[in-house]
Amino acid sequence: MDSNHHLADVLQRFLPAYRQQYSLSRRQAQTCQHILDCRTAKLGSQQWRCDGCGYEQVQYCSCRDRHCPRCQGHQRQQWVAKQQAQILNCRYFHLVFTLPHELNVLSRYAAKGLYSALFQAMWQTLSQFAANRRKISGQLGVTTVLHTWGQTLSQHIHLHCLVPGGVLTAEGQWVETKGKYLYPVKALSAVFRAKVMQALRARQLSVPESDALMLKPWCVYCKPSLTRPDSVLNYLGRYTQKGMLHESRLSSITDRDVCFKYRDYSQPGSAKTMQLTGVEFIRRYLLHVLPKGFMRVRHYGYLANRCRRKKLAVIQPQCRADQTAGRANKEGSEIECRWPCPKCKIGLLRLCALNLPRRERFEVVVPIASG
């Protein structure tokens, strides 16, 4: 269900006041402009016609910015469908690597270096454990996604990692893990802490309170394993294409404040409402705008882009057979946009023309062949 309130409404109302108090980076200004233009005449429109009764409907184009909450649904479906062939028929583990909040300040002036160090430290940590395990040693595969936000839009930098429960040995043999958890989290935390600090120093980033950070425990969390392929796909879609705020969480927008719902994880099952001034809401939202071109979804090990097809061809025949996996793959691969006609309720809407935005004093109308 579409929300009655949109992020563009918040920006339209409070962005001028925000710019009086804070400066916008070029990347933040570009993101704000994309969200304001999303699904408006400025980006052009699409003309749809019913193949039954001939009813016509105009839809404005979306901005397709990854920070825009209105542009994530279809991208999520496409991404999950693309990942169908990569799902292995084995257990999966969900790990979360979190940076202490003392390092948040680095994201203000060296965001790319901080996030790159986080990815590097995570993979070095998991690789070290996979290579040094006595009974099962080999190469892991990891799909990981960067999240920089918490439920209240505060800065909470962490990585969600989805790891197939097995390794690929140097001889090309697939060996599955048998434990309920992948690796002990306390040991992971200690190694991860050292790897992050090493990666930050290599990038010549000054770490605030480095001695105190080395003494405190860092948070690495491991959820119990997932056994069903459809659960794995839900995790993939939920964590990789999720934005910092779904617009359904917006409760109200007044002349001064913005209210939104959030989940309090200290009290499971409880939904609460937070009220922020419009300026503070925008400030928190823009904290999570990523550097241009930075990839927040990455694959490592035998799932890395350069070798994934070759290594999955070796692993998949060795995985246990299960009809559920094949059924999930077949259903998920058939994603098609079918919009029923709102007038006759029988026909389907077909794209018949694209009205591109006005450029250089002329407007281009591109006809679309029917069928």
Structural summary, described in words:
This protein has helices at residues 7-21, 26-37, 73-82, 106-109, 111-132, 185-202, 210-215, 229-240, 278-286, 308-315, 323-333; strands spanning 45-50, 56-60, 92-98, 141-149, 155-164, 166-168, 174-176, 220-226, 250-253, 257-263, 271-277, 297-301, 349-355, 365-367. It has 371 residues and is an alpha+beta fold. The protein has a 5-stranded antiparallel sheet with strand order 8-3-5-4-12, with helices on both faces. Strands 2-1-13-14 form a 4-stranded antiparallel sheet, with no helix packed on it. A 3-stranded antiparallel sheet has the order 9-10-11. A hairpin with a 5-residue loop joins strand 1 (45-50) and strand 2 (56-60).
Topology:
Elements: H1 7-21, H2 26-37, E1 45-50, E2 56-60, H3 73-82, E3 92-98, H4 106-109, H5 111-132, E4 141-149, E5 155-164, E6 166-168, E7 174-176, H6 185-202, H7 210-215, E8 220-226, H8 229-240, E9 250-253, E10 257-263, E11 271-277, H9 278-286, E12 297-301, H10 308-315, H11 323-333, E13 349-355, E14 365-367
Helix pairs in contact: 1-2, 1-9, 3-8, 5-6
Encode the helix/strand succession as letters.
HHEEHEHHEEEEHHEHEEEHEHHEE
Cα end-to-end separation: 29 Å
State the strand order across the main sheet. 8-3-5-4-12
Low-confidence stretches: 322-335, 360-366
Radius of gyration: 23 Å
Q: What summary fits the major beta sheet?
A: 5 strands, antiparallel
So how many helices? 11
Structural class: alpha+beta
Overall shape: globular
Q: What fraction, in percent, of the residue positions are helical?
A: 25-40%
